[in-house]
Design brief:
Rossmann fold, two-stranded antiparallel sheet, 12% strand
């Protein structure tokens, strides 16, 4: 079975700025174009007023705090959606349509996963064309799009089970002229997380150390159903507000996060070295404990 690494645990906070990724370890080869990374990044502190000056659509959503500083109402889904579009446009030169009925990704959180890959996974791979697989890419196609900017040596394949999400994700890729680096695939088999053998699946042309994909990444559905979501909120363990707008398949999956990721581990054994590194976000401590036990049983390296 290929190696599996775990990104830092998905934060259970609604804060727009999640914990920072680990510091990058020293490297002897900087051929992956550090200057590109420095160009496409979020600032340590965001001035919403200055951001709105560069992205006019944000101005109607600005509100003034008691300190006279400008911010937005993070409980307003439209304000959050336009803020994310502004961040992507100004700091990453990405023009993205974020549907009002789909999950709106937190840019800093998603970028931290990309940075984690850059720090912990990419340095272990040979230099040259690398391809990552994003499981459940969503309408925003946020991980491949951010990855295309921050990891100039990487290409991506994003999969999703929702036909509408795949269509919008493809439009987001095309309008940013990244179709040569990002492919989006509709996975019609809801029981398979790694549809590598599906008809017309866009496998990479180049192997990386014997593997077709350098890595896979995943931010799985968190809940089994609305009842679990309510229960976790009552226990004060839930990250998003119940006002979160999203498609059901973006939030819920049969068996919840635990079963989804257990299936991913099972499929990684079957796919073996077709993917070099298997990574995922994990939202619950009990899921993490379950996965560690399952991984040890599968003989995964750590």
């Amino acid at each position: 079975m290929s190696e599996l690494k775990e990104p830092e645990k998905r934060p259970l906070s609604t804060s727009p700025v999640p914990p920072s990724p680990p510091k990058k370890r020293a490297r002897t080869d900087q051929s992956d174009n550090d200057s590109s990374r420095q160009h496409y990044d979020l600032p340590d502190e965001i001035s919403y007023r200055a951001l709105a000056d560069k992205y006019a659509e944000l101005k109607p959503y600005l509100v003034t705090e008691s300190s006279q500083r400008s911010t937005i109402d993070f409980k307003d889904p439209d304000a959050v959606r336009v803020l994310n579009q502004a961040l992507l446009s100004v700091y990453f030169d990405l023009r993205i349509h974020l549907p009002s009925n789909s999950l709106c990704p937190t840019i800093a959180n998603r970028l931290n996963y990309i940075k984690w890959l850059s720090t912990n996974i990419i340095p272990d791979l040979v230099h040259g064309p690398l391809t990552g697989l994003d499981i459940g890419t969503g309408a925003s196609c946020i991980y491949p799009l951010l990855g295309a900017r921050y990891l100039p040596q990487c290409k991506f394949v994003g999969t999703d089970i929702n036909e509408e999400s795949v269509a919008i994700a493809s439009q987001n890729v095309d309008q940013n002229e990244l179709h040569s680096r990002i492919k989006v695939f509709l996975n019609t088999d809801r029981l398979t997380t790694l549809p590598l053998d599906a008809v017309d699946f866009p496998l990479p042309d180049v192997d990386v150390e014997g593997s077709r994909f350098a890595f896979c990444m995943c931010n799985p559905p968190f809940y089994e159903n609305i009842n679990e979501r309510l229960r976790l909120r009552q226990m004060k363990r839930e990250a998003p507000s119940l006002n979160t707008i999203a498609k059901d398949d973006e939030l819920y999956t049969e068996g919840g996060e635990e079963r989804f990721l257990s299936r991913l581990v099972d499929e990684s054994v079957v796919c073996a070295k077709r993917i070099k590194w298997y990574t995922t976000m994990v939202g619950k401590k009990n899921t993490l404990a379950l996965l560690k036990t399952k991984l040890r049983g599968a003989g995964a390296k750590q």
